[in-house]
Amino acid sequence: MDILKTYENSRVLVTGGDGFIGSHHVEKLLSLGANVSVIDTMLCGNKIGHLVEHKNLTVHKLDVTDKDSIAPLFKDKGIVFHLAAVVGVEETQHEPLEVLNVEIIGTLNVIALAAQNKAKRFVFASSSEVYGDTVKPMVEPGPFNPKSTYALTKMVGEHYCRAYFQKHGLEYTLLRYFNTYGPRQDDRFVISRFMDRASNKKEIFIFGDGNQTRDFTYVEDSVNMSLLAAVSNKGVNQAFNLGTGKAVSVNNLAKIILKTLDAADKVKTSYVDYDNIRSREIEIFNRLANIDKVVKLLQYKPETTLEAGIQKYVKWYRNRK
Ligand SMILES: NC(=O)c1ccc[n+]([C@@H]2O[C@H](COP(=O)([O-])OP(=O)(O)OC[C@H]3O[C@@H](n4cnc5c(N)ncnc54)[C@H](O)[C@@H]3O)[C@@H](O)[C@H]2O)c1
User: CATH number of the domain that 273 lies in?
Assistant: First the structure.
């Protein structure tokens, strides 16, 4: 991964840098010698609190929907990673206007400022949600079938990237994150939720019959793929699936987590009908990334198995302050 040396002394902007995936970007970028500016509302838990003293980091508590306030921060930036978003497919169904505001207006502001300031690359955090329930494994050219407001906004963001390249020459990279997990993730998401509950000897609830599958990707792998795609010439104006190429059912996921926590006989597992919890209409039952493009163009293969990733996550969880 020699190409990552390109980040040394570079000036990088990360929106959503205080979030789960954003904080891992910031950590890795600083370790590579980059100067990092973060834009974040900081309302989601101060996930970069441990880094604020770093001499190469500046954090701006700002909102991407307020274009005037964020505008000065785009001067002389090389790569702009745009991760700020209202996340959680189910939650965002209840707040469609907020999602539209942040994901559409916010994205438009960030991309326009990146273009105006001639950023070297605009890296957009898209989502596997854009595929919906379509072919498996999912391949970058599509087909697409966004089922939720959130998924739709990610498709719109991708289209803005193409439009801004055509009109202003801003080079972009689209990163379609599959279910990413690891330290600092909110317990709204399945792995964190199971781990948190099982660690506290509380019953865990599986939606439906638990046979739905996901391509769970350890955050370190996701960030490596993101940073490689952002500096590689092969990543210019390309979309990449950030997954592992392996699908695991939620039933098996629960077993792996309980085994890792040594809690299989201490924690009860129950099944909950979808209709009581979340809308079946927006659920994507099977999700699997085809990662041939990442392997071929970026020469990277995610290294962390689900078992190993959960072990690392559990270790972090137990040692966290
Ligand atoms: N975690 C996943 O599995 C996953 C999957 C697909 C796509 N993504 C995408 O990756 C990106 C990061 O996701 P995450 O899981 O780290 O979520 P997160 O919620 O932890 O991070 C999002 C960050 O954006 C910030 N933010 C929200 N609204 C903002 C605004 N108006 N202005 C400035 N900052 C704002 C939040 O404060 C938060 O720190 C998002 O764009 C998300 O859609 C994540």
Answer: 3.90.25.10
For the cut 70, the answer to whether the pLDDT of residue 300 exceeds it is: yes
Q: Does 110 contact ligand 1 (Cβ within 6 A)?
A: no
Range of the structural domain that residue 129 is part of: 2-180+216-245+287-304
User: How would you label 207-226 residue by residue, b for 16+ Cβ within 10 Å and e otherwise?
Assistant: bbebebbbbbbbbbbbbbbb
Q: What is the pLDDT of residues 6-36, one digit of tens each?
A: 999 999 999 999 999 999 999 999 999 999 9
Q: Specify the residue with its C-alpha closest to ligand 1, atom 39.
A: 19
Please give the positions annotated as active site: 150
Going from the Cα of 87 to the center of ligand 1, the distance in angstroms, rounded, reads 6
Residue from 13, 63, 83 to probe ligand 1 pocket by mutation (most atoms less than 8 Å from CB): 83
SS3 147: coil
**Residue 242 pLDDT level (bands cut at 50, 70, 90):** very high
Give the separation between CA 61 and CA 82, rounded to whole angstroms.
15
pLDDT value, residue 277? 66
Number of domains in the chain: 2
Tell me: do 168 and 40 sit in the same domain: yes
Same domain? 65 vs 100: yes
Whether residue 185 is contained in a domain is answered as no
pTM above 0.85, yes or no: yes
Which three-class secondary structure state does DSSP give residue 152?
helix
CATH code where residue 112 lies: 3.40.50.720
